[in-house]
Amino acid sequence: MKHNYHSHTVRCGHAVGTEREYIETGIKNGLITIGFSDHSPFLFWKERDGGMKIDREKAADYFKTLGELRQEYRITHPEIYIPVGFEFEYFPGAFDSYIEEADSCAAVLPDGERVGIEYLILGQHFTGFGSENGGYSGMPGDSEKRLASYVEAVIAGMETGKFTYLAHPDLINFTGSVQVYEKHMREIPIAAKKLGIPLEINLLGLHEHRNYPNDLFWHMVSETGNLVVMGCDAHAPERVGNPELISEGEAFAKRFGLQVLDELTLRNPLA
């Protein structure tokens, strides 16, 4: 693994370490792409999000800090690529404005370089705003309606053409029947294949034995023949390109006969 597009910063409220530590660890572990895609701010949601997102006032510093570090590493390590983006939700009716508002937090460096949103990965942690949201998707529940809402939001997000890949596609923690899970979740790999969007084997969830990656979902991915990518989902510097975690991901992919992409072409969400 030489390319990782899924790393966070302390601004999201549940990660640790400095951006420089993430970059240095990535270089030490042999990465040549060290992408940052921290949780985007909920710009239209006045209620608190449970400490899972960047506060809006911190978004400009996110762009500024990473932009300045990127300029520095262009000189000292010209082989290293540090793209800057967000892990983004899809909310119907507000999505385009959501992107515009988030990008309005872009920083302009002293030499005139503008650093804003360069790519997005889709991470559907919620399925609605405020009191309308179905709660954190990773919380256990047996509601078929909630499962269907998650699948609908994920597919609609992919159909925008704005996302480079789908992070932890099996985040939803459905505790109902296997038949109901398969009925709805199979729609995600089918849509992703049609749209050419890779699905992420999430190394954080795999290493911590979370409810994802879900074996049943990845059996469906294997049957569908999707493009697959591994993402560190690093919330601490030592997770960036960690050889142990990568080995776990490779073994997982091999178990399901998955062909893993490494380097990706980033989709410009502002195009």
What would a concise description of this structure say?
The protein has 271 residues and is α/β, with parallel strands linked by helices. It has helices at residues 19-28, 56-76, 95-103, 144-159, 178-185, 187-195, 203-207, 215-224, 243-255; strands at 3-4, 33-34, 36-39, 84-88, 107-108, 114-115, 119-122, 165-166, 199-202, 228-231, 260-261.
Q: Label the structural class.
A: alpha/beta
Order of helices and strands: EHEEHEHEEEHEHHEHHEHE
User: What is the third-level CATH name, the topology?
Assistant: TIM Barrel
Number of helices: 9
Shape: globular
Kindly state the percentage of residues in helix.
25-40%
Rg, Å, rounded = 18 Å
Strand content: 5-15%
Task: Tell me what the CATH architecture is.
Answer: Alpha-Beta Barrel
Characterize the biggest β-sheet. Answer: 4 strands, parallel
Give average pLDDT, whole number: 92
Low-confidence stretches: 46-50
